[in-house]
Amino acid sequence: MKQIFIAGNWKSNKTTSEAIEWLREFKIKTSNFKLKTTPQVVLCASFTLLYPLKKEISRLGIPIKLGAQDVSPYGAGAYTGAVNAVQIKEIADWVIIGHSERRKFFSETDELLQQEVEQAKSAGLGIIYCVPDDTTIVPGTVDVVAYEPVWAIGTGKSDTPENANSVIQTIKTVSKAGRVIYGGSVTRENVASFIAQPMIDGVLPGGASLSPETFYDLLVALAV
Ligand code: PEP
After folding, report:
1. Which segments of the protein form a coiled coil according to its record (predicted)?
2. CA 175 to CA 199: how far, in whole Å?
3. What domains does the chain contain, in order, with CATH numbers?
4. Which atom of ligand 1 is nearest to the CA of 146?
5. Ligand 1 site: residues with CB under 6 angstroms?
6. Model confidence over 98-149: pLDDT tens digits?
7. Measuring CA to CA, which residue among 202, 215, 175 is closest to residue 40?
8. I need a labelling partner for 44 at 20 to 30 A (CA). Which of 134, 146, 185, 212 fits?
């Protein structure tokens, strides 16, 4: 049985107190819940939230790993405003690179993303690399690829599980990616149908990760 990988992407949402409250509610909801297989759960949050989340995850003993949503393409030095990979690795284990919102709103190019991948890799961060289709180049060293069609992100219109499976099959064939997940309007209603596809190793929910109830519901849906 495949180990399912779920990476919640909070995007630019939540204050520290809201993030801590999310964890406490999630802990209460999951305390009596036994899954048939244990998914690998990563929560990708704003930089400001990572340290308080880390402390609270450890205090509550929740099996969630943390991820950042971006990383500097440079190392330490005179890069005002940038957060570098070594700084992130002090607190988190994962980073999302190449999300379509970074490509669109922050003009991140494939060349820049390659630099980010190199920085993240050398710091020992796990990399979730987002691509909008099966023609986008995937750097060889990433750990997880997320197929996220742009039209499906935050729109309520997901890809069909069959098409996502076929695109992911191509991504697996042309890249060295071992694990490829699907993202784009994943909900508790549709998550199981994506996971049931043979090529799909997990999901990247944005909106459905924002409340502990809906995130918990995704896990419940995967357990049946
Ligand atoms: C995302 O954050 O990458 C995403 C797919 O968001 P949503 O699940 O809200 O479509």
Report:
1. none
2. 14
3. 5-223 (3.20.20.70)
4. 3
5. 9, 11, 99, 148, 153-154, 183-186, 204-208
6. 999 999 999 999 999 999 999 999 999 999 999 999 999 999 889 999 999 9
7. 202
8. 134
